[in-house]
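FORM 7B: Structural annotation worksheet

SECTION A. Query
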Amino acid sequence: MAATVLTDDQLDAVGPPQGPPGRRRLLAELTVAFEPARLALRAGPLATAPKGDGRIVVLFPGWKAPESSMWPIGTYLDRLGHDSRPWGLGVNRGDVEAMRDQMMERVARSAESSGRPVNLVGWSLGGVVAREVARQLPEQVNRVVTYGTPAIGGPTHTVGAASYDPAEVDRIRLLQEELDANEPITVPITAIFTRRDGAVAWRACIDRLSPDVTMVEVRSSHVGLGLDPDVWLTVARALGQVR
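SECTION B. Predicted structure
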């Protein structure tokens, strides 16, 4: 199954998330072992994806993940002609508000130095940070692409919820709801999700509130998203769009 863009009718049929994924979903994460072979088999389509024009792409790693976790897709995007760059904060420690503020400065500097808005690509919680940067800097961000990223609920519907104080989970959820209602993200978003996700409830990845969002489904596990050829192709096609 290749990546599938969901229609409005398909999105309307998706119910709300009901907490973190069940334990059985964790078994799907074992399929990450097959992703390198899938990349090799899709070498042709990957090589002929839309080319970049040198625009900066800032890469946001997932929760507790190092910058190096984004190296494979960054290398691929560079080969297509993009200018991929690590976010520069090291391991994603999980404090979205602090990382958002730090990244706003870095993204604004990158946009100013290059003379044009930059693209943001985020995996899981890294995508949450990327979304919040784009919310605050719509003039400096060209496009956002996320994969395995909860668009609603903060950590509520993720396996990481247990590591937060319940009051903090509620605070984050309510803050996100307020922001989405009063300050929606106007930058174009391509949001990739998978029903096999063992870390984030896939229904929480469905973005119904941003005015310019494209939802794309793939068949990866959550951990496998970083090496899934359909994810790479979707990212390349999204970043190849002229705006």
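SECTION C. Observations
Residues 96-114 form the longest helix (19 residues). The chain has one domain: 4-47+55-239.

SECTION D. Sign-off
Analyst initials: ____
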